[in-house]
Amino acid sequence: MPTLELDHLTKTYGSGDSVVHALTDMTFTVAPGEIYGFVGSNGAGKSTAMRITLGVLAPDSGEARVDGVRINDDIRRTIGYMPEERGLYDKERITDQLIFFGRLHGLTKQAATRNTADLLEQLGLTGRAQSKLQELSLGNQQRVQLAASLIHDPELLILDEPFSGLDPVAVSVMSDLLIAKAAEGVPVLFSSHQLDLVQRLCHRVGIITAGEMRAQGTVTDLRNSGPVRYEVRTAARGWLPPGAVIVDEDREQDAVVVDPGDNDDQTILTAALAAGPVHGFTRRIPDLTDLFKEVVSS
Question: Which long-range contacts (CB under 8 A, 24 or more apart) does 139-144 make?
Fold first, then answer.
């Protein structure tokens, strides 16, 4: 399976005082079998990077490559793409649509029909195979859109906000399918605002702000790069060692969250015990949501 490379992509709109920097020196890779989460606020540049990769937009500089080859029409045919703006036909039966998309990708009618049946079963839509798209819920419509991106057995998946608006059952179904595709060696790039889901699914994450990559790495590495804090359950007050500060305090629960400064966990715990009984002591590594807030606000 291939490796996707985005190499120093830059894209601007407008000119003079009204120029907008949609992407600045955007660089990252997605390896075979890797699920890469691309996260950022609305307008950060995620969709622009994906559209450049697909050839819908042209960059001012830089290029997108697969296994070192600049993406061309032949490579694009091997990509499965799920756009944020869904592009299916409301009044057509979903089976007919999926077979049609499969034929567009060069499949025989027999192969397209077989793939359609397999995907509808995996996505829990076999019972709605003859339904028109407009008769389905939003969640089921998005399952069909995912099926359309997978109908031709793509070697690379690019998904723009695939989980937007889905209920937990639909999220679970789609997550399992993406995990299965990655297990087959397919590189998966997807954007999402659901950072708890990104943290659970992704091998690596890139955080983009105003068109620039601000943080990138494995979920574990990113979380460990953030500020470690401590939750201390104690009724004592005024016991903090020098340099430590209270981040949050809940007097009803006798709990404080401490930013340790230069102190380690043993120093924090020793100071708390010296002031009175300690009923709980937890080292809190920031989750991806905490890190995202810190990165985009800095």
Answer: 139/165, 139/166, 139/167, 139/169, 139/170, 140/170, 141/86, 141/88, 142/86, 142/166, 142/170, 142/174, 143/170, 143/173, 143/174, 144/88, 144/94, 144/97, 144/98
Closest CA to 261 of 221, 218, 228, 296: 228
Token couple for 231: 């939750």
The answer to whether 136 touches 60, Cβ cutoff 8 Å, is no
- Return the ∠ at Cα 234 (arms to 231 and 240), rounded to 5°: 70
Residue ranges of E strands in 77-203: 79-82, 156-160, 188-191
**pLDDT block averages, 10 residues each, the chain of length 298:** 93 80 92 94 87 90 93 91 83 93 92 95 90 88 90 94 84 90 95 90 93 91 86 88 86 80 91 92 88 79
Which tokens hold the place of 204?
A: 């690596």
Question: What are 124's two structure tokens?
Answer: 């829990």
In whole angstroms, what is the distance from residue 59 CA to residue 9 CA? Answer: 6
pTM for the model: 0.83
Tokens encoding 23: 């992407």
Burial class (CB in 10 A: 0-12, 13-18, 19+), 110: exposed
Distance CA 238, CA 246 (A): 10
The pLDDT, as a whole number, for residue 109 is 93
**pLDDT at residue 33, as a whole number:** 95
List, in sequence order, every beta strand (DSSP E) within the chain: 4-13, 20-30, 35-39, 61-66, 69-70, 79-82, 156-160, 188-191, 204-209, 212-218, 229-233, 245-250, 255-259, 280-284
Query: What values do phi and psi take at 247, rounded to 5?
Result: -90, -40
